[in-house]
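Risk mitigation, structural track. In case the binding assays with phosphoenolpyruvate fail to produce interpretable data, a predicted complex structure has been prepared as a fallback.
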Amino acid sequence: MIVVIKPEVDEEAILQIVQKLKRMGYGIHRSTGEKRTVLGAIGRRREDAAQTLEAIPEVEKVVYVTRPFKLVGREFQPRDTEIRIGNSSVGGKEIAVIAGPCAVESEQQLLDSARAVKSAGARFLRGGAFKPRTSPYSFQGLEQEGLGLLSRVGRETGLLVVTEVMDQFTVKQVAECADILQVGTRNMQNFYLLRELGKIRKPVLLKRGMSATVEEWLMAAEYIMSGGNYQVILCERGIRTFEPYTRNTLDLSAVPLVKELSHLPVIVDPSHGTGKKSLIPAMCKAAIAAGADGLMVEVHPSPGEALSDGPQSLNREEFLQLMADLKGVAQIVGRTI
Ligand code: PEP
Ligand code: MN
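Fallback model:
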């Protein structure tokens, strides 16, 4: 249930309500807005609870949340979440652009990619050190060496690093070098991993499972938030359908839908969403028009030689052109890029 505190109630009174809820057996999650504080009380439904709490003078109202996701939902937090990372943010007025190669392949490849995305105006560098590949014979990533390269290149170029974490055992290792930890589509319902990510205090970029419903996706985010880590960014990356001309079907309707249901920022990955570089510019424009807070685009200095996902990677010039073309679209919807 959600306990909405009246405006301008002092901290001491709020803490007393928190203590009371804890004594009643609830786990408490707090959202402090500009005007109002809202307490998410998670626990077994008690019929008398609302009455008891509404009798407290500082409590404005008690709302039972009927949806299965509680902390992720708009009822818990009506205003949009903006996640600040260094001098940048995800979920603010500026469209967050995360770009870089699918996989970290070498120092030179990463540095060239980083310089390309930086000069085009991106603030975040992506690159996989641990690669979840369909075939065990495909390139699996440079692992720890790749993480080291990401740290170094990120620092050198001033870009924030986004990289995938594949299991619960490597969360600390990845968190040491990443500014945002990515959960891949194949791991969206790896609940041990999600629980571990709930314990850290770094942003998590949660990709939608390739066969996940919107509700399953939001429940995966709820796992992370229920652990106390409220910094979750949702990423639509395409879902499986019967259509073979594209690698996935990019579900852009998920963007405004999730924005209705949740306060969390939503970004779109047209590279994995389509699998085709020719479709990326149109889908980036459409994503911004649909209300996305950011984009993830694969960029490689030489896509033809990429060890993974070359056909969906832009080269330096193509990315530069894309970023220039997106400015106008961003402006129309009141955003910057
Ligand atoms: C990736 O971002 O490189 C990746 C593997 O993405 P996904 O999990 O969406 O397939
Ligand atoms: Mn990829």
